[in-house]
C-alpha cells in the first residue's frame, strides 16, 4: 500500500512512523512550510513538495490529511475530487455544514473515506462494545476528558490570539473531546438533544480556545449522558496518575460498563482498560488487550477496507455526526452565555 501525506506537523510524524513500521510505501509529503516538509521527508526517506496539487497528481492507494483542523475541509475536498481514497485526521471539519458538504462529495465520488478516530480500533474498545451490549437498557452515562495542560501554556496561546485573532486554533473540546464523542456515538447511539452546555475560557481566549466544557445530552434511547472536558494543570491524577483522565461510563438496568483510555502517544507503554459489572451473575469482568499502536492498527484496517473487508473505522457519515454534536453543544453554550 502506497500512502502520501498532506501536512508535516507533529501528527503527520505519527502517521509517517506507522506507515514505515508496517512496511507500507510512504511516497510523498506535502506542506506549504518547505522546512517542515523537507525535514519529515528526510526522516522517513520519501519525496516532498510544497505544492498539494503536485501530491494529488501522484498515484497512491491512500492520501492522509494531517493538516491543522481548520484546513481539513479544503484539503480533504481536494483529495476526494482528485479521486483518492482518504484518511482525514479528526475532526473531519470544523463545522457540521462543511461536514455535510464533504459527506455529499464522498457519496457522489464513491471513493473510500476514513476519519482518524483511531481510539475505536483498539481491541480493548471492541471488547468494551461487547460489555455495553450486556448492561441492558442504558439509563445514564458519563464521558470524562481531562488532559494535563501546563499553566505556562496559556500566556503563549493568548499572545498568539492577540497577534493573530483569526489563528487556526481550537480548545479542549474539539482537540481532546472529539475522540470521546465519537466513542460515545459509536457505543451508545445517536444524541436526540443537547439539554444544556457551558464553556469556560481563560481571559483573552474567548471565543477561540475553551479551557473547560460541560454538557448534558439526551440520547435517542432515552438515557442521559453527562460530558465534562477540560485542560487543567493536574499531572498526578487519572487512573495511572499521569494527568490523563479519560473515561466512558455507561450504566444500564443489568450492569455497568467502564472504559479508561490512555495517552494516545504512548501505545508501547499503556493500554485501555474495559470493565463490566454484570448484575445477572453478580460478577465483575476486566479486559486489557495489551499494547496496540492505534495508528498502526488504523492503517492495517484501511488496507483491509481497500480490499473490500468490513472494518470498524469511522466513516464520513459517522464523523459528520460528531461535528454536528460539537456544533450543537457550542450553540447550547451560547444560549446559556458560556
Automatic annotation (TrEMBL):
Pfam families per the UniProt record, alphabetical: GFO_IDH_MocA, GFO_IDH_MocA_C3
Domain Gfo/Idh/MocA-like oxidoreductase N-terminal: 2-117
Single annotated GO MF: nucleotide binding
Organism superkingdom: Bacteria
Residues annotated as domain GFO/IDH/MocA-like oxidoreductase: 128-233
Classification via SUPFAM superfamilies: Glyceraldehyde-3-phosphate dehydrogenase-like, C-terminal domain, NAD(P)-binding Rossmann-fold domains
Family annotation (InterPro entries): Gfo/Idh/MocA-like_OxRdtase_N (IPR000683), Gfo/Idh/MocA_Oxidoreductases (IPR051450), GFO_IDH_MocA-like_dom (IPR055170), NAD(P)-bd_dom_sf (IPR036291)
Protein name (Swiss-Prot/TrEMBL): Gfo/Idh/MocA family oxidoreductase
Source organism of this protein record: Paenibacillus agaridevorans
